[in-house]
Amino acid sequence: MNRAQLADFLRTRREALQPEDVGLPRGPRRRTGGLRREEVAALCGISADYYGRIEQQRGPRPSEQMIAALARGLRLGLDERDHLFRLAGHLAPERALRAEHVAPGLMRIMDRLADTPAQVMTALGETLVQTRPAQALLGDETRFTGPERACVYRWFTRPESRRLYPEEDHGYHGRVFTAQLRDAYTREGPTGRAAAIVTALEAVSSEFVTLWAAHDVGLGYSDRKRIQHPEAGVLQLYCQTLVDPANAHVLLVFTAAPGSESAERLELLSVVGQVRSDV
């Protein structure tokens, strides 16, 4: 680990970012050109004290998970991300596994959707980044680890995950999740992560085994989706998608028809989510 170079690299990238680049207000009292340390820490989901110690060349070596969070928060490109891993004494992730890294351009779009439910997901249904309104609507889907990161795995192993949708929609969601997993399995082959999820699900879910044997392909969602929230009830939402083909990522944006009851509930949820995050 090269502490001096790591600290210097983080500082230069922090100072190169402007508040507008990450969806933050500049404010009248800002004296420095780049972002403050506490702002970068918030973007990375870590404490300001922890980030400050890294820039001050103190503390333990950051983990691979922490370096990935720093790369995402600082909107680094793939070459910059790899360099950051090496400075921290880790092997750079294989480019074949680049699905964990959200492209800077996609992150900039997310920054401008800060007041809208939106999230970035991998081809396996792993949620990488969520806006606060998305967490208020869907829950924190970035907290899971291992195979549970994939929504299809949670669907067949965690009954509480189905509460997000009305019961009459469960059959269709199960088929779509399975078809999407099959698409990833076909693209990655028998040694990919999708294959590992298939094997794990076959061992624990007879429902999955039945759906997998049906060989459904090409199933997908329309632009309308019903979300069942424990406090707001059932919301009729539009789900628009933006695809990043280079990383096989999908940006999902949830909206409601203007003036509708769902729009009012969605706005209320966004406000409640903001208040809770500030507590």
TrEMBL record:
SMART domains tied to this protein: HTH_XRE
Recorded superkingdom: Bacteria
Pfam family, one: HTH_31
Positions of the HTH cro/C1-type domain: 34-81
Molecular function per GO: DNA binding
Protein name (Swiss-Prot/TrEMBL): Transcriptional regulator
Origin organism lineage: Bacteria, Bacillati, Actinomycetota, Actinomycetes, Micromonosporales
